[in-house]
């Protein structure tokens, strides 16, 4: 009999693994069912960034309060919409969905009513867009919360930093450790996972910071940075990141910003191999390739996961008014402390490095107090940014790859 139970347990484990679902946490006061669920985006729960940070935040809430939670991996056989429906049908009362796919939840698909309407007792939390609006701006479903990160501001800082580092590369880094192009070729790259406002918000902020730094440094009339961009790399293929980064480096560029999940690991691998720089996203990945990741633009998804779960527990979800913004001051976004890159600066460059860090901190303060306003594609749409390019990024020459 013991052998039979062992076989049954093994079979159940295999079924759960095949479904891409795993759970942690104890039973809740409301019973043994799932209470809080998290749907991962395509890159998966072990992406060392966007998904994994959220999973860790949810686990901390399960450990703290004993909630029974479940994390779901989507794939070719399980869309985000189907995963959300499964968790709502299973009784989950709070569902976080990290995938950029909102139709089933907000509009309904296949002739069915929207999931938000079908499960009014569940609160749904979506990220990186505010799809829960009518044309007049009114809220469609009262039980949907949209989470937006002010990553355009953090990306602006990364862009500003990139120019300061590029223009002072010879003073900062030893040629034995960094094979940087010092010929005056001003090229920078950006690779994004998909052509959506959730990616454009990074790129637009990054370009804006680059353009501002060129102006502040007074590099001369007509000086512009060539900006090589690819916004359709997906989020999985490391080779795509390596290939793109090589193309930028071959054109004389020293820095490539990757906003594409695991594709970014390919960029930083090529940066290390080439002794140049990559910029990563979501989590602090500066230590992945020490000295060759200039910084990481942070999107700490654990911050809203924990904050919204606390509000759920306290019965205060209404305070979000269906939209939660997380800015530089919240700790959910920003850039890293630059310690890893700073450790690679040669002794004679430390004073200049300190000046660069102080200048970036000053720009951050001006963003925080409203002196510098950064265009937000999440709020205002990418089309608006494109229409105002001449005004917003006059010192950037965009080149699609």
Written description of the protein model:
The protein has a 7-stranded mixed sheet, with helices on both faces. The protein has a 7-stranded mixed sheet with strand order 13-11-10-9-7-8-14, sandwiched between helices. The chain is 42% helix and 17% strand. It is elongated, with a radius of gyration of 22 Å. Strand 9, helix 10 and strand 10 form a beta-alpha-beta unit. It is an alpha/beta fold. It has 2 domains: 148 residues, Response regulator (Rossmann fold, 3-Layer(aba) Sandwich); 216 residues, Response regulator (Rossmann fold), CATH 3.40.50. The N terminus is likely disordered. The protein starts with a helix and ends with a strand.
Tally of DSSP helical segments: 16
List the strand order in the largest sheet.
1-3-2-4-5-6-12
Please write the CATH class name of the largest domain: Alpha Beta
CATH topology-level fold name of the largest domain: Rossmann fold
Total discrete domains: 2
Give the end-to-end Cα distance, rounded to a whole number of Å.
63 Å
The ordered H/E elements are HEEHEHEHHEEHHEHEHEHEEHEEHHHHHE
Gyration radius over CA: 22 Å
CATH architecture of the largest domain: 3-Layer(aba) Sandwich
What is the CATH H-level superfamily of the largest domain? Response regulator
The beta-strand count equals 14
Low-confidence parts: 1-20, 24-32
Helix proportion range: 40-55%
Determine the mean pLDDT. Answer: 91
Q: What's the main sheet like?
A: 7 strands, mixed
- Shape descriptor reads elongated
Strand content: 15-25%
Q: Which structural class do the helices and strands define? A: alpha/beta
């Amino acid at each position: 009999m013991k052998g039979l139970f062992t076989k049954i347990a093994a079979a159940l484990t295999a079924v759960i693994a095949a479904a891409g679902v795993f759970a942690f946490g104890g039973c809740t006061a409301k019973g043994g069912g799932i209470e809080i669920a998290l749907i991962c985006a395509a890159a998966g729960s072990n992406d060392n960034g966007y998904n994994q940070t959220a999973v860790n935040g949810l686990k901390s809430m399960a450990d703290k309060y004993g909630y029974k939670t479940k994390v779901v991996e989507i794939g070719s056989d399980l869309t985000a919409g189907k995963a959300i429906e499964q968790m709502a049908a299973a009784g989950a009362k709070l569902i976080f969905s990290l995938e950029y796919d909102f139709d089933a939840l907000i509009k309904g698909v296949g002739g069915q009513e929207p999931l938000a309407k079908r499960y009014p007792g569940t609160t749904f939390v979506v990220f990186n867009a505010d799809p829960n609006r009518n044309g007049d701006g009114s809220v469609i479903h009262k039980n949907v919360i949209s989470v937006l990160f002010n990553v355009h501001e953090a990306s602006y800082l990364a862009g500003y930093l990139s120019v300061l580092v590029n223009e002072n590369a010879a003073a900062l880094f030893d040629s034995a450790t960094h094979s940087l192009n010092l010929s005056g070729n001003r090229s920078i790259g950006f690779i994004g996972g998909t052509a959506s406002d959730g990616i454009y918000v990074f790129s637009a902020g990054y370009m804006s910071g680059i353009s501002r730094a060129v102006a502040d440094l007074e590099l001369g009339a007509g000086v512009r940075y060539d900006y090589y961009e690819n916004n359709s790399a997906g989020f999985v293929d490391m080779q795509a990141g390596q290939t793109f980064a090589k193309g930028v480096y071959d054109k004389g560029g020293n820095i490539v910003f990757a906003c594409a999940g695991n594709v970014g690991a390919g960029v930083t691998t090529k940066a290390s191999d080439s002794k140049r720089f990559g910029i990563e996203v979501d989590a602090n990945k500066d230590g992945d390739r020490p000295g060759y990741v200039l910084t990481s633009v942070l999107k700490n998804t654990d911050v809203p996961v924990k904050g919204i779960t606390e509000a759920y527990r306290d019965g205060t979800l209404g305070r979000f008014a269906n939209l939660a913004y997380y800015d530089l001051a919240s700790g959910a976004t920003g850039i890293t402390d630059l310690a890893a890159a700073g450790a690679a600066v040669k002794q004679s460059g430390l004073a200049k490095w300190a000046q660069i860090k102080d200048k970036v901190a000053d720009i951050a303060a001006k963003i925080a107090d409203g002196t510098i306003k950064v265009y937000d594609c999440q709020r205002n749409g990418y089309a608006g940014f494109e229409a105002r390019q001449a005004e917003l990024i006059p010192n950037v020459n965009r080149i699609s790859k």
